[in-house]
Write a structure and sequence with these properties.
By secondary structure, the chain is α+β, with helices and mostly antiparallel strands. It has four domains: 8-35 and 51-190, Beta Barrel (Lipocalin), CATH 2.40.128; 202-400, Ribonuclease Inhibitor (Leucine-rich repeat, LRR (right-handed beta-alpha superhelix), Alpha-Beta Horseshoe), CATH 3.80.10.10; 418-465 and 599-721, no CATH class; 490-598, no CATH class. The chain contains ten helices and 35 strands. Strands 1, 2, 3, 4, 5, 8, 9, 10, 11, 12 and 13 form an eleven-stranded antiparallel sheet that branches. A nine-stranded parallel sheet has the order 14-15-16-17-18-19-20-21-22, with no helix packed on it. β1 and β2 (50-59) form a beta hairpin. InterPro entries: DUF1963, Leu-rich_rpt, Leu-rich_rpt_typical-subtyp, LRR_dom_sf, LRR_domain-containing, YwqG-like_sf. It holds the Pfam family DUF1963.
């Protein structure tokens, strides 16, 4: 910390409006800062003008200064976030010194890049602020200083001042968990207030008194105490975005637990705001909207979540520009069949009083998401049964529709024995993984529940992705080096399709025209080589797994799985000469090829998202359900985690998938019907090698057990689960 100056969160953080006395105090702070660092003031000339700067970083251990300069300083009002964006760089003169003293990383090239975004800082036509930061975070607002290039353990502690165009950082870089190093940081530079376009700024209601009315295009009012909108709101004729927010004072409380706003009425004068594009009011006592709101023809986003609305004006449902409509947590009981929202993309009517949905919603051409959970539905037209945008819980869908799975051709399913997919506890007691799992359970507090815990195990085929140099043969691991190269199980590369088969393609829009694009090949699984490990895959032949692209996963036709029954028909993939531009979105012509080491293993479920996936315990005794409810942490530490550590596989067949929400099997059942336990993961492809699914996630191919046993791979559900 700068010598002679102590920073405390309680005494230093201030927000607008600044009183005359507060402005005097701030000016005094700045004068003291410049007096302390007068020797460090530099005149820096850029392409347009000369500005005064201070750039002083000192190692507190030896009081040595790391010489530096401020470069590329600029600020603007972001048209995207509607906040004040400040960016600047600090260039260290001696890069190696900065690395050696653990100020910067070796990859920073001696440069620290600062970025911060601020709101509630406007007064009398310029930014003004006095804010205190700990661990890069402001102690009183949702502000964060981003410093790229800084040694990873270091964070900023100190004050940010903004006044009369000056931006000043006065504090230290230090670690929250290590005593050293500590660097005093004293940075200052001045920018032109005239460069700021305040018409892009989102004004807080406390700031508008000193703003030019034509600049107020975005307005937010936090936790108001009035029951009707103040008259001056209607005077901002350039207003495009209006937000009235019940801001949580207790972050542990959920939104519906907050005390609602006193706001009850919106005046018909709202129609005067003809440029309004979005209005968002949450957790208020509003029971109805004025009919005049339908005159706001530019509205594209409307959010009245957690209010008390019983209905909306009928003509509201015909606003031509409306794209996003959020009405969750109200008391709406009816949506008119006459609705006509040609541009609607997302509608949220969760937790209202709806008895049905108008069939017209199923015909909205642009609708992507229709959230409708938590309504007392009595009837939904059959058009909604497989309507992909509709988001209902699985049990809600089962109550409204005949949700039996009827197979790909609608002719029903065949009978099957679930023992095919499970571990046989009677005949496989010598199976290494099973014996280790039994030991894990016996050493835990859940030993009395050993049988129902073991009943949850799936008999899985596990793949370790390897290169040719890693190929091994052992008693428990089977590598297919007895096969010729063609037909070998592998991930990435190209498929060994029969000569009679063309590489699969699909039609898609590109540059305004329909073009034929290649599927991305992911895996080739030789079922014949796996026949002695399981009895649920085809006994002969090979499976080939494709996706259109990462961006298509989640759509109903995003995959293709090809089954070739006779391996004698397979032909070398060397004939496929594809180019990256022939795919929807690829940077190479193929994923890097990896061969696969195969082993028989087991898979155990994660109960992280048990609230969503309670079907996992459908056949389990009440004692296990109670144990998981009462001792979830202990169960994870003593059972789940140790079992998870037994398996180091990359990809798998008939495995459980980790998810934070609905399991892949439940998602498939929700879309196509049947019970989630009747679906299985026919292939999990992990983020390995070139495969990168979202944030290091897993890609799942899911199919119904009846279809699998009939070797019918026409209906595959695909999804990605990622952190």
């Amino acid at each position: 910390m700068t010598k002679g100056r102590q920073h405390t969160a309680q005494s230093q953080s201030k927000s607008v409006p600044f009183s005359a006395q507060a402005q005097q105090d701030l000016a005094q702070h700045l004068a003291e800062f410049f007096q302390r660092h007068a020797e460090a003031i530099l005149d820096k000339t850029d392409a347009t003008n000369t500005i005064k700067t201070i750039s002083k970083i000192t190692n507190n251990r030896n009081q040595s200064e790391l010489k530096s300069t401020i470069e590329n300083a600029k600020w603007s009002i972001s048209a995207f976030s509607n906040e004040l964006l400040i960016q600047f760089d600090v260039q260290l003169e001696n890069q190696q010194q900065a690395v050696d003293q653990k100020l910067t990383t070796e990859y920073s090239y001696g440069q620290l890049e600062f970025k911060l975004s601020l709101f509630s800082i406007f007064q009398d036509g310029e930014p003004i602020a006095q804010l205190y930061f700990e661990e890069n975070k402001c102690t009183t607002n949702q502000f964060y200083i981003q410093v790229d290039g800084l040694e990873y353990a270091l964070q900023f502690y100190g004050e940010l001042f903004i006044h009369q165009g000056w931006i000043i950082l006065d504090g230290v870089f230090k670690s929250s968990y290590m005593p050293d190093p500590i660097f005093s940081v004293n940075l200052a530079f001045q920018l032109s207030v005239q460069d700021l376009d305040w018409s892009n700024y989102r004004f807080d209601y406390s700031e508008v008194n000193t703003a030019q009315p034509e600049h107020v295009t975005a307005l937010i009012i936090r936790n108001p105490e009035f029951d009707t909108l103040p008259d001056d709101v209607y005077s901002f004729r350039h207003l495009k975005h209006l937000t009235i927010q019940c801001h949580r004072t207790n972050p542990k409380q959920k939104p519906f637990q907050q005390q609602p706003l006193a706001l009850k009425h919106i005046s018909p004068r709202i129609a005067a705001l003809t440029q309004l594009e979005s209005i968002s009011i949450n957790n208020a006592l509003i029971e109805q909207l004025p009919d005049e709101i339908v005159q706001l023809r530019a509205l594209n986003t409307v959010n009245f979540s957690l209010c008390r609305l019983k209905s909306l004006p009928e003509t509201f449902w015909q606003l031509p520009a409306l794209k996003f409509l959020f009405l969750s947590g109200n008391h709406i009981s009816d949506i008119p069949e006459s609705l006509n929202l040609p541009n609607l993309r997302s509608l949220n009517v969760e937790y209202n009083q709806l008895k049905t949905l108008p069939i017209a919603l199923s015909k909205m051409p642009e609708l992507i998401n229709l959230y409708a959970r938590g309504n007392p539905f009595e009837y939904l037209d059959n058009a909604f049964k497989y309507f992909q945008p509709l988001q209902l819980d699985f049990e809600e869908k089962k109550a409204l529709f005949d949700f039996s799975y009827m197979g790909v051709d609608g002719c029903g399913v065949i009978d099957w024995d679930d023992k095919l997919f499970q571990v046989d506890l009677q005949s496989e007691n010598d199976f290494d993984d099973l014996m280790q799992i039994q030991n894990i359970i016996e050493q835990s507090q859940f030993k009395p529940l050993q049988k129902p815990i073991l009943d949850l195990l799936k008999r899985s085929i596990l793949f370790h992705q390897c290169t040719a140099a890693e190929n091994t043969i052992s008693e428990n691991k089977i590598y297919e080096n007895t096969l010729i190269e063609t037909g070998r199980t592998h991930f990435g590369g190209m498929p060994d399709l029969p000569l009679s088969m063309h590489y699969p393609t699909f039609q898609a829009q590109r540059d305004g025209a329909m073009v034929s694009l290649n599927y991305e090949f992911l895996a080739q699984i030789n079922c014949e080589a796996l026949a002695n490990l399981q009895q649920f895959l085809p006994r002969t032949g090979t499976l080939f797994f494709f996706i259109k692209s990462l961006h298509h996963v989640g759509e109903l036709d995003s995959t293709q799985v090809i089954y070739v029954k006779d391996n004698q028909q397979l032909a070398s993939s060397a004939r496929f000469k594809l180019a990256a531009e022939d795919y929807f979105d690829a940077i190479t012509d193929q994923y890097q090829r990896f061969d696969a080491e195969v082993s028989l293993g087991v898979s155990f479920p994660s109960f992280y998202a048990l609230d969503y996936n309670d079907y996992l315990l459908k056949s389990s005794p009440a004692t296990l359900k109670k144990a998981l409810k009462d001792h979830a942490d202990a169960f994870y530490e003593q059972i789940e985690a140790p079992i998870e550590q037994l398996s180091t596989h990359d990809h798998g067949i008939n495995v459980y998938g980790f998810t934070q929400h609905q399991s892949p099997e439940l998602q498939a059942a929700t879309v196509y019907g049947g019970e989630p336990e009747d679906w299985l993961i026919v292939l999990k492809v992990a983020s390995r090698g070139d495969f990168q699914w979202s944030d290091a996630g897993d890609l799942f191919f899911v199919m119904h057990k009846s279809d699998l046993l009939q070797c019918d791979f026409r209906r595959i559900f695909a999804c990605i689960e990622s952190s």
